[in-house]
Amino acid sequence: MEFQHRSLAAGRWISFSLAEQLGNIGGEVNRVIRARGDEKRFDNAVVRTLELFDLTLSDPRWRKRLKELARARELFCAAVLGSPEYGTSLEDLNTYFFHFAYAAQSKR
Question: Is 0.85 topped by the overall pTM?
Answer without folding.
Answer: yes
